[in-house]
Amino acid sequence: MTMPAMAESEHLPVQQAREGDSPAWDTLFRRYQLPLYVYVFELVRHEQTSLDLVQETFIAATKYIGGLRDDEKFGSWLFGIAHQKVLLHWRKKGGKEFLWEEIPDSPDESQDSPDDGIIRREQEAEFMKLLEQLPLPQRSALLLHFVEDFSIEEIARITETQAGTVKSRLHYAKKSLRKLWEAKNENPA
Amino acid sequence: MKTPREVLFERHWAARPKLDAIRREMVSKINHQGTEAQSYPKGLVFWFLGCSNTLWRELIFPSRRIWAGLAPIWVLLLVVNLSQRDEPQVTMDKASSSAGMAATFEQQQELLAQLIGPNEPVVAEPQKKYVPRPSSWRCFEIVTV
Q: What residues 60-99 of chain A have any CB closer than 8 A to a CB of chain B?
């Protein structure tokens, strides 16, 4: 099983794709199809809807690639489109679940002890299983952080929020996951 | 130990065939669009050729004798039409010749005047002045007559 490589470790043929080169698009789609699907699925929790949204994202990408200024930001640009598609889907559905309610400002990082705010690496995999229990804004930020290792600024751009808000969401997401993890360990049944 | 990324990808690995199908469909669409855009002028030529071929096969060839019979008539009409195009020039020639005729007429009149002399003007009698008279005079005149 070969995982798609991270964006910074590869050269993507964005310019060729912009010129309408189909093998270049094939490379780009191949690279991002699974990460996009994972991100969308973990937000909408429906297989066919997720596949449709990924396809819509690809269609929009081929349509608006001319508007992308920086080729290096193709990944975050593509995830931005997918994020907008998810929001649109939820608005159409009238889902109240996807209200992007704001949470308190980012706490000072110094307040977090190593065991408090930051999830230990060995626990991360288990924590991901508890991901769906998180509020959607936190889930979105955490997925973008884990799936593509996007920076705070990139996640802010994708979700169209402030960097401080993203920091806050990530902090509370990790904290919530830790609590859920502890609750699960206390009550294994 | 697996990373969260690996865990997530493993969880959704089963969706890959469907994602591959979407990718292939998208790429073939892009490929098709590109080919369509490149072959547009060639396609237009083929369309015209196809139309002319259909026209020949279905309209002209089955009734070729009739078309052949009509052909001399069309040629004749064409000749007539072309010959009628010269008409404005003839009209212009006519206009210019009428001006020449007027000049000749004037010359002839001058010659005639020289031969028979100039026409004397007829002196007209001066018109009698109307003098109003009393109406009793008229009665007098009747009596005297």
A: 62
